[in-house]
Amino acid sequence: MAEKEYTETSEAQIAVHWGEEGYYMPSVKFIAQANMTDETIYDRFSLDNFPNCYKEYADMLDWYEYWDEILDTSDAPCFKWFKGGKINACYNCVDRHLDEYKNKTAIHFVPEPIEEGYQHITYQELFVRVNEFAALLRDFAGLKRGDRVTLHMPMVPELPITMLACARLGVIHSQVFGGFSGRACADRIVDSGSRVLITTDAYYRSGSLIDHKQNADIAVDLAGKDGQTVDKVLVWQRYPGKASSSTPMADGRDYFVNDVLKDYYGARVEPEKMNAEDPLFLMYTSGTTGKPKGCQHGTGGFLAYTAGTSKYVQDIHPTDVYWCMADIGWITGHSYIVYGPLAIAASSVVYEGVPTYPDAGRAWRIAQDLGVNIFHTAPTAIRALRKIGPDEPVKYNYEFKHMTTVGEPIEPEVWKWYYEYVGKKKAAIVDTWWQTETGGFLCSTIPAIKPMKPGSAGPGMPGIHPIVYDDEGNEVEPGKGIAGNICIQNPWPGMFQTIWGDRDRFVDTYFARYCKDPKSTNWQDWPYMTGDAAVVAEDGYVRILGRIDDVINVSGHRLGTKEIESAALVVEEVAEAAVIPVAHEIKGKEPDLYVSLKPGYEATDELAKKVSDTISSEIGKIAKPRKVWIVKDMPKTRSGKIMRRVLAAISNNKDEGDVTTLANPEIVEEIKKMVQG
Ligand code: WT7
Questions:
Q1: How far is 398 from 416, CA to CA, in rounded Å?
Q2: Which of 214, 503, 515, 643 is the most buried (most CB within 10 A)?
Q3: pLDDT score at 18
Q4: Computed over its alpha carbons, how large is the radius of gyration of the chain?
Q5: Cα-Cα-Cα-Cα dihedral of 503, 509, 510, 514, to 10°?
Q6: According to the model, what pLDDT value does residue 20 have?
Q7: Pairing assessment for the beta strands 528-536 and 551-554 based on DSSP bridges
Q8: Ligand 1 atom 3: the closest Cα is on which residue?
Q9: How far is residue 610's CA from residue 616's CA, in Å, rounded to a whole number?
């Protein structure tokens, strides 16, 4: 035990004690209107019918040229879907809806300040704005098919407009979460090789207008130092024509989009006929090492999978008003605010601010005002809303037919509040388990077919065949109550194609451990390792227990411990850093940071603050530690490894186990006194 590094498995064992909950049935009313009620879908998508089953999703899209090979495995595990097909994602999300829906809202924008009211962008307006901006990107910024462009934008309608304009041109967008720092943005600019950065001058968050342009200056400066020149920064304005940021514009580099757009009034851009397997976008996510991974998502496969799952799992009809509260800067927003919903002509809500601003009723007023009937959010938001206003939802007159939870395991108690209070016992709930890498849902119930079970995501999606392995690679049978590493036996169209520029890391991280033959071109030999621990019940429902690697899930988002530790090491005085997850009532987990100092430096509150601030500026506020503990020494094994398991036990007030074999067991008591008082 002593030589073993800390993993989340101990956490996982605790989670097993949740026990299996009883089923909840969807209402007759929901089933009567649902998009998918045919139970034979599970047979149609069985392993025997793989991969041809996915034709059903591909046929939800319009193709310039129909594909001739559904799955090309010749370069396994870099799988290519719908080979030979030609398609454009923007055309599928915008143009093709104009005949029937041009006057229907595509995007309901909700600014955070209440007095600004609502904006309703129709499909026609979306078409116009996307075309004009695509013309600008092509003719003014010189972007063309295959180029990468970094976006660092908040939750404003210009973000989906920018993404769709890129998709129209075949330009690969890489949107960086708006709350990330200039440094984090710079790293992604460099890795993706972007020479254009698209940003916004300012946005609202919790009542203040935040100067966002300053991050662009930092990002461009740092990217330049790392060898990637950004020659144009395109700045959308929160209030067109009005300065909302005091950060100056760099002459010949920075341009206000509104000014330049005037030259493109009325412009129309022919959508590029992309190969199905051409990349559509990159989405960076944290891994076990410091460097974030650029998950590369393809065009045809990604769009088919998100359209299909938006229809069957989200149950979106063109007449619904669908609100996913996630940020478009994460994969959830790409798949289930923008591409999936718009591909099937949804009306999708984009909310700028925080759900609890200015009070606990805001989210429910938005739902009531817009007539939202499909609601999608994460356990962290549900916990926050429940905490500050448990009786708020019943005061408002909205009616949800369907609700989603995503991002981390949801405690059955929180699930039940969501069901009873937010859904008013009328909404069907889906707990969707998936990842940045997977593009779309892996496990979930199909809401009108399978009952709900609090705390369980449900069975594998149609066409997704999970399998749980133990550390030796033996299958753990369902119903045994034993946790293991959950993998997916087969590829699927939404799956990422590779890590941008690093195929080896892609293979190593996700396939090497359980690959049956590294030379094989059979998909059967390449189970996909998700990195999560899970238990599968007898009924095939999957309960996710958390990550097995060094990744902390904070508010439903992955932060690499190495990433945070390297940020801490930027501080001159810091010699060693170790990050561990601490349970948090609302965020699920929070990082606790332990640092030791170089000789000659003294532990002070100022220094702890400096370390904490550095993490905010290097990564973003989301990574800010709960507490920075400056310790004399780290608990270490005799071989010199930091014992994160021991630190985690101390931070979480748990038994630290046997520490007698450590190189320095006496430090444990000392740290314990400091942390636990
Ligand atoms: C990790 C992926 C999927 C979009 C948001 C997060 C955890 C995700 C669930 C769920 C339990 C979940 C997993 C996964 N996770 N959804 N419904 N139940 N855990 O994307 O940042 O790539 O994180 O989030 O641990 O591996 P991400």
A1: 19
A2: 643
A3: 63
A4: 24
A5: 120
A6: 82
A7: unpaired
A8: 435
A9: 10
